[in-house]
Amino acid sequence: MDDDSELIAISALSQWGYCPRRCALIHVEQTFEENIYTLRGELEHQRVDELGGELKDGVRVERGLPLWSKRLGLTGRADAVEFHGQTPYPVEYKHGRKRRRPEAELQLCAQAMCLEEMTGQPVPKGAIFHQGSRRRTEITLDENLRRRVEEAVAAVRALLSSETLPEPVNDARCDLCSLKESCLPELVASRARLRQAQHGLFCAKDLAGTP
Q1: Report for 21-25, 167-171, 205-209: range of highest mean pLDDT
Q2: Which of 11, 55, 151, 185 has the greatest count of CB atoms below 10 A from its CB?
Q3: What CA–CA distance (Å, rounded) separates 107 from 28?
Q4: CATH level 3 topology of 4-166
Q5: What is the pLDDT of residue 36?
Q6: What is the pairing mode between strands 74-84 and 87-94?
């Protein structure tokens, strides 16, 4: 894909994996708000970026490395990439303690796929570093995860093209989201349920032959 206007930010895949409506609010509506979690994450990423490149125990570490993939139409940057010999090993930093983060796995795998295209080297594994607990989780970048990345890229591209907001997830994820006040998940979900109930009522009347 040669048109830069069609490029998707790698971070958008993570936003979409967390909540498609959040992804649309940020990348379609250009909406963003801070909360305690985003502020902490921003501070922690600033500390990561300030470290720069280094050589540690024979492993070269590059921070803030620009990434791109012409095939997938992706652009962004990696928090850190370790080079074990010629093999890149991306490390994505996330705020909070160690827990399963499917959306971060999408982002990490997309970074790996970019690195493979850029370097010509296979990237079979990467890691998510949990800054709250100072622990990392190694992720095997298998075919299933790579297929999920390709599906996510297609879904995000369709979302950006449609310029419409998906329905809110309206679950526990909303309590941690900085865009909750802009999204109004409970109100929007209530309206959607009301529309569905009204539609069901009218359909039932039609089937019953009610005038």
Answers
A1: 21-25
A2: 185
A3: 19
A4: Lambda Exonuclease; Chain A (3.90.320)
A5: 47
A6: antiparallel
pLDDT digits (tens, 9 = 90+) for 25-61: 998 888 766 554 454 545 555 555 555 678 888 899 9
Strand partners, 56: 59
How does DSSP classify residue 179?
A: T
Apex 145 CA angle, 141 and 148, nearest 5: 150
Strand ranges (E), the chain:
8-9, 54-56, 59-69, 74-84, 87-94, 125-130, 135-140
Q: Which two tokens stand for residue 54?
A: 């280094």
Residue 166 gets which letter from DSSP?
P
Which residue's structure tokens are 């990392």? Answer: 136
Distance CA 49, CA 53 (A): 9
pLDDT in tens, 139-194: 999 999 999 999 999 999 999 998 788 888 888 888 888 888 888 888 876 665 54
d(CA 101, CA 18): 9
Query: Can you give the residue ranges of every domain in the chain?
Result: 4-166, 168-211
Other beta carbons within 10 Å of 20:
19
**Using 50, 70 and 90 to split pLDDT, how confident is the model at 98?**
confident
59-69 and 135-140 strand pairing: unpaired
76 burial via Cβ count (<10 Å: 0-12, 13-18, 19+): buried
